[in-house]
Amino acid sequence: MSTIYAIANQKGGVGKTTTAINLGAALSELKQRVLLIDLDPQASMTLALGINPDALDLTVYNALASVVNDDEALSLQKVMMTTKAGLTLVPANIELSQADLDLVREPLGVYALRDALFPIRNHFDAIVVDCPPSLGILTTNALAAADKVIIPLQADYLALKGVYLLLRSIAKIQRRVNRNLRIAGILLTMADTRTLHARDIIANTRQVFQGRVPIFDTVIKLNVRLKEAPLTGQSVLEYDRHGAAATAYRALARELLGQEVKRNA
Predict the structure, then answer these.
(1) Are 88 and 51 within 8 A, CB to CB?
(2) Are the beta carbons of 22 and 235 closer than 8 angstroms?
(3) Domains defined for the chain, CATH in brackets
(4) Does residue 107 come out as left (phi exceeding 0), alpha (psi in the -120 to 50 range) or beta?
C-alpha cells in the first residue's frame, strides 16, 4: 500500500510545486514507484514537467468528475501520463476550477480523490499531491485522501504567521474527515541563510513548534537552479544533478523514508 503525501499550504509561492516535483524525483531515485498528482487549477506542476495543459483532453478533473457521477469508465489510470523526465503524472488544467463547484454540491465530495485513488494505491509506493494555494475543497480532498501532509514554509516572518491557520484546518480535518492523517513535518524552503532574518526564522520555527509539529532537518535553500529547472521540463535532480538543491531534496526523501521505517518498526 502506498503512502499518500499532500503538499499543502494556503499561501502561494512557498515552494509547494517545487517540493512535490523534486521530492517525487528523489523518491523515484530511491527505487520508489511514484505517482505525482497535480491538484491545482493553475497546473503549475503540469507546466513545470513540460506538458501544455491547454492541449490535454483528459486531466485529474475528469477522473474526479467520474467519481462524483458514479461513472467507473474513467479511472485515474486512464489519465496518467509519463513525462519526458520519466515521472508518472496525473495532470491538471484550468478545467479543475470547475471541481470547486462540483465537489461542494456533492454530499461526499470531500472524498472524491480518496475514492479515485483507491483502485490504484497498490500500484505505487508513494503518491505526491500538489495542492492549490487555498484551504478550499481541492485541498480538503487531498488531506482527506492523504496519510501525511508536508507543509512547505518559506523562511519569512509573514509566511510563518500564516501556518497557524493551516494547522487549525488540518486538526479539523483530522477530527472530522481523516483520523489517519499525520503531519510529516514543516519543510523550511527558499531560505537565504546568508541573511540574519532567514536564520532567525529557521531558529524561531524550530523553537515555536518543538514537540508540537515535526520540523524536517532538511532545509531547502534559495537556489536559482530551482527556478531554471521547470523551464526545461525537468526536476532539479536531472537539471543540476550534483547541485545543492538536488542534494537537499534527496536528503528530504531519505528523511521521509526514515519516518516510514520507524513507524513500521
Answers:
(1) no
(2) yes
(3) 3-264 (3.40.50.300)
(4) alpha
Cell of 94: 484550468
Element holding 154 (H helix, E strand): strand 148-154
Contact 152, 9 (CB under 8 A): yes
Helices 157-176 and 196-209: crossing angle, nearest 10°? 30
| Residues 101-130: tens digit of each pLDDT | 889 888 889 999 999 999 999 999 999 999
Q: What pLDDT is stored for residue 264 in this prediction?
A: 56
The b-or-e profile of 210-224 (16+ CB within 10 A means b, else e) is eeebbbbebbbbbbe
Closest CA to 252 of 5, 23, 14: 23
Q: Please enumerate in sequence order all residues whose Cβ is within 8 A of that of 173, keeping only pairs 6 or more positions apart, or say none.
A: 140, 143, 144, 181
Provide the pLDDT confidence category of residue 201 given band limits of 50, 70 and 90.
Answer: confident
State the Cα–Cα distance between residues 42 and 31, nearest whole angstrom.
30
Q: Are strands 148-154 and 182-191 parallel, antiparallel or unpaired?
A: parallel
Other CB atoms within a 10 A radius of the CB of residue 225 amount to 13
3 in helix, strand or coil? Answer: strand
